[in-house]
Amino acid sequence: MNIHQSGSRLVRILRLCTRGSTATGYRNCRTLIQKHGFETLRKQNGLSCHLRNCMGLTLIRFQYSERIHQIPSEAEDVNNCDRDTKDSSVLSDPSIGSSAKGTSSQYSGPTSEGSSTELERPTEMRTSWEQFCNELRQCTSPSDVLDLYEHSKMAWKYTSNALTTMWETIKRMSDDQRRYEQKLMFEHPLFEKICQKALKEAQLMSCNDLVYSLFALVKMGVSQQSRLIQTLLRVSQERLNDFDERALSVLSSCLRNMEESKNVISLRAGLRLLVELRISQIKTVVALQTIMRCIGKESSMPLKKKLEEKALSLLNRFTLPNLQYMFITLAVMGYRSYPLLDSCSSRIIENIHGIPFWRLVHILQSCKDLKYRNPALLTAAGNHVASMLCVWEVKQLALLLVLFAELGFRHIELLDGFAEMVMARPESLNSKDVLSTLRVFSLLNHRPGEERVKQFLQTLVDLFQSHLSRYSSLELLRGVYYLCSMGHYLPATLNQLFQDDILNDLQCPDHPNRVSNERMLQYIKLGVELDNPSFAVLESAMIADPLLPSVAVNTAVKEMVEAILGDSSLYRCGSVLRDIHFIDFEIALDQERKIAVPFPQDDEIAHLTNIQRVAVICAPASAFCLGSVHPKDRLALKVRHLKTLGYQVALVAEHEFGRLSEDERVVFLKNAIFGE
To answer: Model-level pTM?
Structure first.
């Protein structure tokens, strides 16, 4: 007669009850069977297996808590430089899941007075567990943990804590050391054994141990398509409803950067549904932010709004790190929440001097990703950086300035101070720092004081030429473009850029930046033609012809121009200069009489000394530096080219023009056109 596996388990438990009822602390078998109950776990060979695991029989006599696991903090998700905000968790006793609940009420003490057997065994277990935890703390590498694990009891609790400690040791290492230790770890004979152990005991682990094990294995680089990772994901999906706030937070951190697979997709979908149901139960800011980052940009807008409302309700509990990480969280979600961002910004401004370098970098990067431009926040950040010029390195300042430039923010004091540092210590800039510096000052159209501008630009030119051999074709193009934007044309760099092989590479149809490359080449070509027409290489340079810009004329400005001039024949509308620069309105002005006259033919203008051409340029707010009407980037380049051709440029900032009344608009345009 064949006995099913579940029957064999029942017989084994009954024997344990008969032999060691005193050792287990239960007076009879009925108590033990009621304790472990019957519960359907899975089906084997078509039959239901109803027995819970019995590994807890030898461990339920004691309760012990040890601080081993650590939830992955937001500082670790953002960068590995900040390690001060870890949130450690106190683990429950090493029993299986919920089977440990109520243990003390079931335990009725020793059955015979003076018996030492039932007292010695739990004491030995507790001592063994304490010794294992103490030795884990002393491990400095994954190999140390594996060597220790070889001599442990190898219960599932030991496996989970060993895996977590392996990741804790490896994450503090440098990149080179980490790669070396990972190689040793994967080659260690015990690593496969501990993975097999985790695979077999996945169903036995508590929720926290399950997600911590999954998190550690993924972070250590175990293949995400392996049977072990996929099994842990599947078990997590089955037990998702049992996860508490901490387990959900750890699972969220783990899933955020995992590769797409059926189990990952299903678990993310289940997590979103569970989060939506449990939003009201979330109590901590860390857990909320972790879950918000996990649901990502793919979540629905109603869910994002619910999470926003929950975050606003917890706003008074936000610490300074919480305020900083909220920017990162919203950037990961792709959700620009002005109430949250404005509230966090106001408190960050008050504590701006307490924010370390890398957190400030991540705040600015998140503002860029969210297209959130808060002048007060950027001004406070700029003042803080300007006060740290003598403390931070040039590389750090260059990185921050790039972020400020991408946000369109021009902090004059900071830029001037950085220019002084570059002139004083040019050797501190490497090839990438030189390109970053050129980009910042070109993009923001900023020049230091008149007495220092020539020295500063010459310093940048010398640095760029010294690193010329290290630049790729794309970096060479960008460097030449930045210098041309600032009015510097170097024959050596132009000759190198206009070589056929480099031009073919930059304008290759398969090049990911082909369109922008062609545009930069066209701007460089036009600038050289205007400022240095004797440069002969341009004639043979194979540069694609520019496409005519398609820009709509601002109707509000057009109405005002017609009202001022009184005749539509006195201006040209929507002309294009050299197939590149779009001019909204072109007016011929008699300088002596200060009146508009009919536009003469192009060949007559050069002979009419009293005729001044006026170009009215309308530009959106994004074409100016934040909070000002200082032109930047290509608008500044257009203005410089037009002035080189003899135009008087009248700039109209559309965001400022729209706020004026009709009378104020007339006065503004008259002053811009006639110089009144």
So the answer is: 0.70
